[in-house]
Amino acid sequence: MDEVLIVGASVGGATAAETLARAGVPVIMLERDLSYIKPCGGAVPPVAFDEFDIPQAMISRKVHRTLVHSPSERVTEVEVAGLEASENDYVAMVCREDFDDYLRQRAVQSGAELIEGQFLDMQVDAHGVTVHYRERTTQTRQTLRVAAVIGADGAYSPTAKALGLPNLPRCIAIQERIRLPEDKMARWEDSADLYLGTEVSPDLYAWAFPKKDHIAVGIGAGPKHTKAARQLLENLKQRIAPDLVGGDIFMREAHALPMHPRRHMSFDRTMLIGDAAGLVVGTSGEGIYWAMKSGKMAAEVLAENISNPVQQALRHYDRQWWRQYGTMYRFLRGLQVWGYGNTRQKEVFTDMCRNLDVQRLTFESYMHKNMTPVPWLVQMRMTGDILAAQVRHYAPQMRRRVANATRNA
Ligand SMILES: Cc1cc2nc3c(=O)[nH]c(=O)nc-3n(C[C@H](O)[C@H](O)[C@H](O)COP(=O)(O)OP(=O)(O)OC[C@H]3O[C@@H](n4cnc5c(N)ncnc54)[C@H](O)[C@@H]3O)c2cc1C
Questions:
Q1: Which of 107, 161, 268, 343 matches a 20 to 30 Å C-alpha distance to 65?
Q2: The pLDDT of residue 323 is above 80
């Protein structure tokens, strides 16, 4: 018995299934609901299309600039361009209903089996894993015996729960998809907009991302603000009301996002990938590429160790992952805490986005998924600019404090 069960057949699960099937390992994907559409902005870096050999036809729209709106509505235009100009200088917008289905079908064509059913629980022993699930059409409880399980079941991960792992801290993201009249849609032709401000997103950001024939408008809210999420989205729509005139809301979506990664992602006969492992990066909330990448990496390690998938062997996946991406995760998490901390800091963040060095480095890491070493001259230039922005935005507050202190003395 060397069969693998993957719980969840979204971007991460489908990529892991295809990788295992191509390596000759028998694999089953278990998906709770095949008609489910994952709530998602759908922004994907071009590197994902090259690396995972995805046809350009999956791209609903290519965006070449980002507009960052500060709390006081100062707008910074950021061109999507890396250190060297390339035809890959864009952000791809995808519709998850098409994108996920494509990856899932490709896994099936590679040899993976697909079952529609809900994972219930599992018991791991020295020789395999016994899994119980509820088959969707018959609503009957079924049992499977497999060699190993990959949990690709998202932010609420029932697989992680079955392993006795704690819930990850989560933020909530909600969005509406809005169909606009043609003249209004032209406004979003080539730009993805980010909005900063306490009234739209106290600790993260809000967005308007264009698709082929509509836009997705949404907000992110950290654990302390999840109850206010609906109101925050209403505030965003108020803020950009002139750009939405005549719009028709045809879908409302909400889902959780993990706030930081799990300490360990591999155990005896079980592995976690994507959102189940908490692999969403801070600052941007990007998780599609990371779910696919972790799915591929975990599946490769599992395929090599399928005859004896013990924790010690599978932890190679964790080590490889953190060696390659640890610095980036820590940096982006730090940037999130620093940049979205309070209203003044969000103004500083908007100014920082204006710096050309910052723009190029940000897109370089987004598009190529590596942290380029920064020459010291560039580091000095960026530091100088950031300090100047800090002084600009904090000076009035400091002056007021000094005046008050002098008056009270
Ligand atoms: C509103 C919003 C906007 C976002 N925007 C972006 C963006 O623009 N770009 C980006 O890169 N990322 C974005 N993300 C993050 C991105 O959606 C996730 O990181 C990504 O989908 C994670 O993929 P995954 O395969 O790990 O899990 P998911 O896509 O969450 O899939 C989990 C799968 O598991 C299945 N499942 C769950 N429980 C069970 C069970 N008991 N039995 C069987 N199956 C089960 C679910 O049905 C689902 O299909 C956004 C997220 C949200 C919520």
A1: 343
A2: yes
